[in-house]
Design brief:
The protein is mainly α. Helices cover about 75% and strands about 0% of the residues.
Amino acid sequence: MKLNAIAINTFREAVRDKVFIAIIIFSVITMLGARVIKPLTLGEEAKIIKDIGLNSITFFSVLIAILVGGRLVYKEIEKRTIYLILSRPISKTTFIIGKYLGLLLVLFDSVLIMTGVFYLFLLFLRIPANYILVWAIILTFFELAIITAVAIFFSTFATPITSSIFTFAIYFIGHLTPDLKNLARIAKSPIVSLISDVLYYLLPNLANFNIKAQVVHNMILDYRVTALTILYGIVYSGFIIFLSCLIFRKKDF
């Protein structure tokens, strides 16, 4: 019950946030704006509009996770509401997990809204939209689960700006992990090879969550790999939240 209360309260606070509302509006405008580029699509209008729509859902959802998640815990400390919350029989672990679940609920709703607009837009343009597109959106949600966990992790000890910068850096490098593996293999310096190897295994491999090109071009998906990617997202997120709880429990309030 305590966990539910914190999660629901976090959800209510986040959806009232002007940043959240602005991002949702911009995402809808971007998807609808894809229609403007029709003269430049050279007969590939359907694929380009699908690609822009899926990338808009990912980009704006990641912005919500980073900008809202990065100040979620810090805001409670800054406003000193954390003292009121923890004066009740609520553990610090429950607080962190509740915050995480609340923001995941916000992201779930955001993705749902953007997906609805995306499919309505395709319907309006009479562009066929099969169910395979949904798999790209599902993987995006589990990628968001990792990004949210990372944002909350940094939020337990860093300011909102620092937390957002660190989380964005992890997101950016996380999409380059295959390159880190290649660098470790071809690097002539043992130190560079070692650092690349450590970063490859330490940072989240977010490139695996990006299957937008496959679904837009109607390529056959390997559902075993998709299922393993989802499992990886759950395990990695759980581990980061576990670390966040350990750090937060050491704080004195």
